[in-house]
Amino acid sequence: MLKQEVVMKIESLINTTEAEIYNRQWNPYLGVSINNKVFTLEYISEFMNWATEQAKDCAAVLVVDIIQRINNEVFNRSKPIAAIEKALNKGDEILQICTTAYSSLSTEKKDRIKIIEWTDVVQDETFLWNSKILNRAFEQNLRFKEALISITKRNLGEIT
To answer: Domains in the chain, start-ordered, CATH in brackets?
Structure first.
């Protein structure tokens, strides 16, 4: 069986340029949606190698497992406990892939990569502070609330 080569390609940029990325002015991260089949060992390994070479300080791989619980409940009509168990089990599989990819890196590159779980993000004080601000705005600012609902409906359709 032929091994398919994975090549990192920048598809689009917001508030930066390719030159800035390749001049190590940013810290790249990869948000891994646990049900996305593109996130194979080869893909994550290639990203880690590429990102550590482009990073200003370090790069990260963010495993988004708990959020998948919501998708399991909404799209698969799973009960809450089953939905979270399924998300965590799949998250463990992805974490194992990330750990395997990480273990193949050189020591220098290992020092420049972080594997982060969603629980690490939501417990961070900056996230908690920003979450309070956004939740307050959602509750108190009708235009903001309507805009978020509109965006969600446009992206997910009538299932919302």
So the answer is: 18-118 (3.40.50.11710), 124-160 (no CATH)
